[in-house]
TrEMBL record:
Gene3D superfamilies in UniProt: P-loop containing nucleotide triphosphate hydrolases
UniProt organism field: Sphaerotilus sulfidivorans
Source domain of life: Bacteria
Enzyme class: transferase
PANTHER family per the UniProt record, alphabetical: FERRIC ENTEROBACTIN TRANSPORT PROTEIN FEPE, TYROSINE-PROTEIN KINASE
Assigned EC number: 2.7.10.1
InterPro entries hit by this protein: Bact_polysacc_biosynth/exp (IPR050445), P-loop_NTPase (IPR027417), Wzc-like_C (IPR005702)
Gene Ontology MF, one: transmembrane receptor protein tyrosine kinase activity
UniProt-recorded name of the protein: Chromosome partitioning ATPase
């Protein structure tokens, strides 16, 4: 018992014995304080602030995020979201229209056209998987060309992409690289939009911003984009080289099919052919001359693999593709 408590006890005893002893105001003792004064103070008033007041964290605990640090955290999140959250826009291909116009669609998996495309794509896919004796750089980049316009290269490119999309363990990106006269989107019933030329022209533009997912599983489109008078230079640029590297290595289970301009009247296809792993030359039966075919082959001689397809070749069962290799 401390001194104050002893004094308070002694005063209480004297008071009970009848002595009129004045009680001094001693802080901290209940006996020293008159009852009315104690009752006048609401008990909850001093307690409430003590309950809700923040308690300082120990030195070892992580410091709470202050208002001064919040702008830095938010800025980092905003900067990361566009890359992490980018998702290509989805479009719907007019499959009924494509089927009416003779194109391969998923519902025709056992058609004659589907079988022809299976025969043609098999060596291309074997090369892309590295199953051939020759090791081919960027073998999953396949360029579809023709010597002259109107030989059916876009028709073939769309069919090839559709056929590859039916593979179990592969996906396909169909690039409209005919930047002078793009037609892939129009044939598929899709409105034109930004694409290849815009990515090459604007470094801040990401592929995911312009690629188009479709209602055909595992088939994605890359439009030609905004027309540019320097299309040849852009296709020959360092930006294009980096883009092709990204396409070739980023998704090992993806085949990239380029529908490129005709070889003889343009220069764009020649530039692209020197950078891809495989070329498919579409030749229209009975139309393309021997001299034109020879000139076209000379333009793609830097490409290690050239697969030739004879379009509109007449056979016992009607129109068909024929194919052969050329070196």
């Amino acid at each position: 018992m401390n001194t104050i408590e002893q004094a308070a006890k002694r005063l209480a005893e004297l008071k009970r014995a009848g002595y009129d002893v004045p009680v001094p105001d001693v802080p901290g003792t209940a006996a020293a304080q008159p009852a009315p004064a104690a009752a006048a103070v609401p008990p909850a008033a001093p307690v409430a602030p003590a309950v809700v007041a923040p308690v300082p964290a120990p030195a070892s605990a992580p410091a709470p995020v202050s208002a001064a640090t919040l702008p830095t955290v938010r800025s980092a999140q905003v900067e990361m979201l566009p890359t992490a959250g980018r998702r290509s826009r989805e479009v719907r291909l007019d499959l009924e229209r494509l089927e009416r116009e003779g194109y391969l669609v998923p519902s025709q998996a056992r058609s004659q056209l589907a079988e022809q495309m299976r025969i043609i794509k098999r060596p291309l896919l074997a090369n892309a998987r590295g199953e051939s004796a020759q090791q081919i750089s960027r073998a999953n980049l396949i360029q579809v060309v023709s010597a002259m316009p109107g030989e059916g290269k876009t028709f073939f490119a769309v069919n090839l992409a559709m056929s590859i999309a039916m593979e179990v363990d592969l996906s396909v990106l169909l690039v409209d690289a005919d930047v002078l006269r793009p037609s892939v989107l129009a044939r598929c019933g899709v409105e034109p939009s930004r694409g290849l030329m815009d990515v090459l022209k604007t470094p801040s533009l990401d592929l995911a911003d312009v690629m188009l997912r479709t209602n055909v599983p595992k088939l994605t489109l890359l439009p030609a984009g905004t027309a540019n008078s320097q299309s040849t230079e852009l296709l020959a640029s360092t930006a294009m080289e980096r883009l092709l590297d990204e396409l070739a290595s980023r998704f090992p289970d993806r085949i990239i099919v380029f529908d490129a301009p005709p070889l003889i009247p343009t220069t764009e296809s020649r530039v692209l052919a020197s950078r891809v792993g495989q070329v498919v030359m579409v030749v229209e039966a009975g139309k393309t001359t021997h001299a034109q075919v020879t000139q076209a082959y000379a333009a793609v001689e830097q490409c290690p693999v050239v697969l030739s397809v004879l379009n509109r070749a007449s056979g016992n069962s009607g129109e068909a593709y024929g194919y052969y290799y050329a070196s």
